Prior knowledge:
- It is a single chain.
- Helix content is 54%, strand content 13%.
- It has 279 residues and is α/β, with parallel strands linked by helices.
- It has 2 domains: 13-172, Rossmann fold (3-Layer(aba) Sandwich); 182-274, ProC C-terminal domain-like (ProC C-terminal domain-like fold, Orthogonal Bundle).
- It has an 8-stranded mixed β-sheet, sandwiched between helices.
- Helix 4 links the parallel strand 4 (73-76) and strand 5.
- Residues 1-7 have low confidence and may be disordered.
- The protein binds 1,4-dihydronicotinamide adenine dinucleotide and (2S)-3,4-dihydro-2H-pyrrole-2-carboxylic acid.
- (2S)-3,4-dihydro-2H-pyrrole-2-carboxylic acid is lined by residues 105, 176, 180-181.
Amino acid sequence: MSDGTTDARRPQVAVLGGGVMGETIVSALLQAGWAPEDVDVTERSALRANELSERHGVRSCDSNAKVARRADVLVVAVKPNVVGEVLAEVSPVLRPGTVVVTIAAGLPISFYEQRLPEGAAVVRVMPNTPAVVGRGVSVISAGTHAGAEDMALVRRILAATGIVVEAPEKDLDAVTAISGSGPAYAFYLIDAMAEAGVLLGLSRDVATTLAVGTVQGAATLAQQGGEHPAILRERVSSPGGTTVAAVRELDAHGVRAAVVAAAEAARDRSRELGAEYAG
Ligand SMILES: NC(=O)C1=CN([C@@H]2O[C@H](COP(=O)(O)OP(=O)(O)OC[C@H]3O[C@@H](n4cnc5c(N)ncnc54)[C@H](O)[C@@H]3O)[C@@H](O)[C@H]2O)C=CC1
Ligand SMILES: O=C(O)[C@@H]1CCC=N1
C-alpha cells in the first residue's frame, strides 16, 4: 500500500487497546503528523475510551470490528491473551491491503498470519515505555507478506517514539528481554541507587535527583561517546579510589550474573507466552 507520503490524507490507523502502549502509539501518530480524525482507538473500558478521546481528540469506541473496517493500518496493542479474540473480531472485515502491526509480547507472526485473511501484511514490533517521552527503542520484524513500503510506513508511525531498529523475528524473544523489559531493569537500578542515598543520609529528593541524573548522563555518554561501556567504567575508577571499592561489591554480590539471569528469564517467559497462547 501507499505510505501516504503523497496522499492528502495519511493512512487511517486503528489502535486496538488503549492502555499504556496503545496510548503511546496514539500520541506518536499525532506527533508524526497524523490528524486526530485519521486515528481510531478501541477500548474495552468506556471510562478509558473517553479519557483517550478527551486527551488526544481521536475517536474512541469499544468495537474492534467497526474501526478495522476503515483501517489502512491496524495496531494490535492488547495483552497477548486477548489477541486471539481480537483477531477473530477483525479478520472477517479487514480490507485487502490493510497492514496489521502488533506489539504483543511473545506471539509469533505465524499466529496472526494463520488467523488473518490470506496474504495479510503483518509487522511485529517490540517497543518500550520510554517511547512515552520520545526516547524509546522499537524493534520491527516483517511478516511473510510485509513489503518495504509497509516497513517504511511502520517506521513513520514509530518515528516520534524514538529509535527504530529492524531485526529478524527469531531475535524478538531476546529483544524483548533487553529493550522491551529493559526499562524495568534501569528503573530498578535507579530506585536502588536512590534508596542507597537515603541510607547514606541524603534527602529522598536529592538522592532521586542524583540517581536519575547519573543514569541518564551515563546513558547519554555511552550513546554519544561511542566507547565501550567497560572503558567508560574504567575512566570513573581512580586507582585505589571509591569506584573500584564499589564495583568490587557489585561483583561480589553477583550483579552482572543477576542481569544475565534476568534477561534469560525474560526471554524464556516471552517464549512461553508464545507457546501458551499460540498453542
Ligand atoms: N508495557 C510495556 O512495557 C510493553 C508492552 N508491550 C505489549 O503491549 C501490549 C499492551 O500492553 P500494555 O499497554 O502494557 O497493557 P495495558 O493493560 O496497559 O493495555 C491493554 C489495554 O487493552 C484494553 N483491552 C482489553 N481487551 C480489549 C479488547 N478486546 N478490545 C480493545 N481493548 C481491549 C484494556 O482495557 C487495556 O486498556 C501487550 O501485548 C504487551 O505485551 C510491548 C512492549 C512493552
Ligand atoms: O512485561 C511484559 O510482558 C511486557 C513486554 C515487554 C515489556 N512489558
